[in-house]
Specification:
single chain, 630 residues, alpha/beta, Gyrase A, domain 2, Isoleucyl-tRNA Synthetase, Domain 1, 24 helices, 16 strands, 12% strand, RNA-binding
Length: 630
RNA sequence: GGACACGUAGUGUAACUUGGAUAGCACGGCAGCUUGCGGAGCUGUUGGUUGCGGGUUCAAAUCCCGCCGUGUCCGCCA
């Protein structure tokens, strides 16, 4: 719950306020503005800097340089913050090493796995939907990105006190499942490999058949219609999809990704969610039923008034969106909107929930079902959808409709985490055309992990000396996951990515294994040191102003970084932090002897222990488990 | 045609939301460091007109305007 870096900044801000009051009694400047003026200066100048003199320069009609000097002369020393220096108009301060070391190290020790957590989202429910892969194919490397972002964001939000519902939406009524069901009935129903992979491969074949024989397309459409009614086909489709989802969860669990609830399109249909949603829109008077013209017989919505959401809606060609077609079939936007309304608790689905499976993390995965009990899902204050950037426009429409309903609050709390979709060097990863089928290995999440495992085993076998103590298979497993997850999450989600085996399986430099390695080394030092946990007050003074203090500063920032990750919904902030901290630890480790550190031994050991804990906490947010030996 | 996103050394990227001092990191290249707390490491070096052109400002990778390039989306499809 504590954030030492925030404490230091707050103290600095207070001291600046005091100086301003002394030097310029008639000038008032907000604390927030002072916080915004702070930055990290070059190492030799100090630990925190403020450019507040530049702000004051105009109103005081003096140069920033003069102001900084005036402020510095009136500056009082604080508990953490030492006397400042004024350089080029900047106010630079050093933090007191011993006091800060005590603050950081004792906080990390006391709070352990909870260090850095906050109550930012205390009492608030939030729904994260991810990855919602169609239930007729295996997870591809592209779906993995979605799943990993969802996992990391959920972890971060949960650490910030939110009550997170991790939901996986399953569209078992889509045309894709209809095509797969057609294949199951007409091509082959004897799976000879992992079910999702088998079904995905067959799906590619079905599409090839459709291209050759047009009549199949009609059959599939007929099948799709039957699936939406109370028929034998509907049952078959659900069963087929469930078998696929169970297979997909083998993949999910192998990546240690867990969810709380599956929501099936067939259950949404049965619960009449769509009708209720349309009812709400009708009551609000924002839907229209054109009797003539292009949209005769449809239910449409006019988005012109939502042009502050997107300029696109100013375009007269674009502003009318169909919710229900003239044949009575709802569009995807309408379905999504109904689902959104349920998530926010505006409409009730009366879902019945059943147990689906026990997850390896010990929690239960529930599912919507035609029979079961009622449970307390939904009714969230914030909803997050992790969806590829190609869906940006429809996602914008959903925000716009909430706004038209007069619910700007919900519109604001409906968050689309858009991510750049993954491509491959040649062709696309299309599930339909089979672009994901490779010659030697496929572009599936399973193949990626298998490849990573074999590569890390190779490396482990070369490093016999250290890995002999541990179980090689387990180490390979952990390292592989670390490598893949960090690589997927290290860049801004929005950037588009071209998949390459080399990049995804990086073990050196800015990599997952590098972070895990620093953790393992820290663990070994503590093990060897026969370390007495009691640090006397005097020992903190052994913290110097070299690599040890740089590391300490980073440790103090963890809580800030966690909140930033949550506020911006960008896991790469946490990855960046973990890498930075790992680099700082490596430098410290290389240059400053710990066990042979003489008088500084105790405090350096405490720093190692603290680093180990913070690395653990940071990697946990990213979804990476630390290991003691590698 | 319109809207949105992206453009930073050979490559992958950080910093852009909130303007601040010499644009941070990794890969690659080159040169080093292990009888030493774990070399999946460390040190040094190489490489940048931050796509281009204007503007605002004491100060621009960051904000504004206009271009250029790449990608995505724009159906009563699913």
């Amino acid at each position: 719950m504590s954030s030492p870096s925030k404490d230091a900044k707050a103290e600095f801000a207070q001291l600046i306020q005091f100086s301003i009051k002394e030097s310029y009694p008639n000038t008032h400047i907000s604390d927030e503005e002072i916080f915004l003026s702070m930055a990290e200066p070059r190492t030799e100048h100090g630990d925190i800097s403020s450019s507040i003199s530049f702000r004051l320069s105009r109103s005081e009609k003096k140069s920033p340089k003069e102001i900084a000097e005036a402020l510095a002369s009136k500056f009082r020393e604080g508990y953490l913050i030492k006397k400042p220096s004024a350089i080029n108009g900047y106010l630079n301060v050093f933090i007191d090493e011993a006091a800060y070391a005590k603050l950081v190290i004792s906080a990390i020790r006391k709070e352990g796995d909870d260090y850095g957590k906050s109550d930012l989202g205390k009492g608030k429910k939030i729904i994260v939907e991810s990855p919602s892969v169609n239930p007729n194919k295996p997870w591809l490397v592209s779906h993995l990105k979605n799943a990993l972002i969802g996992d990391a964001i959920s972890n971060a939000l949960s650490s910030c006190g939110y009550s997170v519902q991790r939901i996986n939406y399953i569209d078992d009524l889509g045309l894709q499942v209809a095509e797969s069901l057609w294949g199951f009935k007409n091509l082959n129903n004897k799976p000879d490999k992992k079910f999702d992979l088998w079904l995905g491969e067959q799906y590619v074949k079905v599409n090839a058949e459709i291209t050759k024989e047009k009549s199949i397309e009609d059959d599939v459409k007929e099948l799709n219609k039957l699936m939406e009614e109370d028929t034998a086909e509907a049952k078959e489709a659900r069963e087929l999809a469930e078998r696929c989802v169970i297979a997909q969860y083998e993949t999910s669990f192998s990546y240690r990704i867990y969810h709380d609830l599956l929501i099936w399109e067939s259950d949404i249909l049965r619960s009449k969610l769509l009708e209720k949603a349309l009812g709400v829109l009708r009551e609000k008077g924002i839907t229209e039923l054109p009797l003539e013209g292009k949209f005769a017989g449809c239910i449409v919505i006019n988005l012109e008034k939502a042009k502050n959401i997107s300029k696109e809606f100013e375009n007269p060609e674009e502003k009318i969106k169909v919710l229900v077609r003239s044949n009575g079939v709802a569009t995807y936007v309408a379905k999504d909107l109904a689902f959104d309304m349920w998530k926010f608790g505006i409409i009730d689905a009366d879902f019945q929930y059943a147990w689906f499976m026990k997850e390896p993390n010990g929690k239960e995965l529930y599912t919507t079902s035609h029979e079961g009990t009622s449970m307390d899902f939904g009714k969230a204050e914030k909803i997050i959808n992790i969806i590829g950037s190609s869906q940006r426009f429809p996602q914008m429409i959903l925000k716009a409709i909430l706004e038209l309903m007069g619910r700007e609050d919900l519109s604001k709390n409906r968050i689309h985490i858009s991510y750049g979709e993954i491509g491959i060097e040649q062709g696309t990863l299309s599930g339909r055309k089979g672009g994901w089928l490779g010659d030697e290995r496929n572009y599936t999440a399973d193949d990626l992990l298998a490849e990573a495992r074999s590569r890390s085993l190779e490396i482990i076998n070369k490093n016999e000396k250290f890995s002999e103590k541990g179980n090689k298979e387990e180490i390979a497993e952990a390292v592989s996951l670390g490598a893949i997850k960090l690589e997927y999450l290290r860049t801004d989600p929005e950037k588009k990515v071209t998949f390459s085996w080399e990049k995804a399986l990086s073990f050196e430099g800015n990599s997952g294994p590098y972070c895990m390695y620093t953790y393992a080394r820290a663990s070994r030092i503590l093990e060897k040191a026969d370390y007495d946990e009691k640090i006397s007050k005097g020992d903190y003074s052994q913290i110097s102003r070299a690599d040890d203090f740089e590391l300490l500063k980073a440790l103090g920032e963890f809580g800030d970084m966690l909140e930033k990750t949550c506020n911006e919904f960008r896991p790469n902030i946490m990855v960046d932090y973990a890498l930075r901290t790992a680099h700082l630890f490596s430098k410290f480790y290389e240059k400053m002897p710990v066990i042979k550190g003489g008088d500084a031994k105790e405090v350096r050991l405490a720093l190692v222990e603290a680093t180990r804990q913070v690395m653990h906490n940071a990697l946990a947010v990213i979804g990476i488990n630390t290991i003691e030996i590698m």
